[in-house]
Write the structure tokens for this entry.
Amino acid sequence: MKEFTFGIPQNIVFGSGSLKNLPKLAKQLNKKKAFIVSGPHLNKIGLVNQCKNALEKEKISTCAFIETEGNPSCETVEKAAKLCKESESDFIVAFGGGSPLDVAKAVAVLVTYGGKITEYEGGGKVPGPVIPMIAIPTTAGTGSEVTSFSVITDHSRNYKLTVSSNYLLPEYAILDSDLIKSVPSKTAAACGIDAMIHALESYLSLAASPFSEMCSLKALELIGGSIRAYVANRENNEAAYDMMLGSLFAGIAFSHARLGNIHAMSHPVSAYYDVAHGVANAILMPTILEFNALADEGKYYEIYRRIAIAPVTKEQFKPQMLCEEVKDLLVSLDIPLKLSDVGVTREYLEQMTQDAMKSGNIAVNPRKTGVQDIMNLYLKAL
């Protein structure tokens, strides 16, 4: 039996209406000036102001940065960090989907230690604690509120860099399922599939442990059972609740077990073609599941029976059934099945292959993968 370790060092507040706890948590941090990192959509629909007003009512001043884009860049991080320093804020509220949460983590590093975010690329580069953060995800989702990663696009090399450090874990995470009811259907579908893939890849990962597998399987059960109903009607309270909880468990799972080829290959797709992260993951999923099927030792069935509408028995199951099931799911959610459908061509495939191979996720993919394998998988997914 292999040795493994795990830890959940954060304070997590979960439930419908839990956003009301924000001022109380800010006071527990003993801070007075909040820097809110969010995006234009949440600002437009009034949620950023709702967040600001709740804090200001309790005599906590606020400054908001609302320019976070879908695949946030180094330039965006530097712009936000400059504003955060100028505002003399003493804590950060990361409010939005995975992009604002990633930007907030990167800003926390730069405000505390200075320099460029590229200087902190990789693991172990953040020298110590950063300015405290409260994470409030509004999608289900990336799980970024419980992970030690920040993923930022470096346009100078068309590359998604990752900063990894336990110092990036927010002190508090507020998961309010009411906040994901305003998400557009396409965003809900892409983010929901992203969360499902976090659970799926972390479960299949060579670095999986009994703890991470428990979180992965619960996430697959929750997401598999609710994603269709949630995308069909985001006002479905039970489906929204289950999606938020599933996303949380999936985030915890992959923070301990990492992911696999899907995420390794999707980052270059987003970096070169600005494809939404969840969409890139979704398109690659069936192709990579087919590739990994050779290494399956029974886990495919455990995934399948949690996400299938009408699963067959274990005796009747073949690994290809999981591949077909996820294709049917993508079609039902109106997500494309081919990379060419989102503008990807062969032009950058060699560079994308090299960038994918740099990912640590390749090493924990259940089937050993080489450079030619990645190239072939991209070609097949096209």
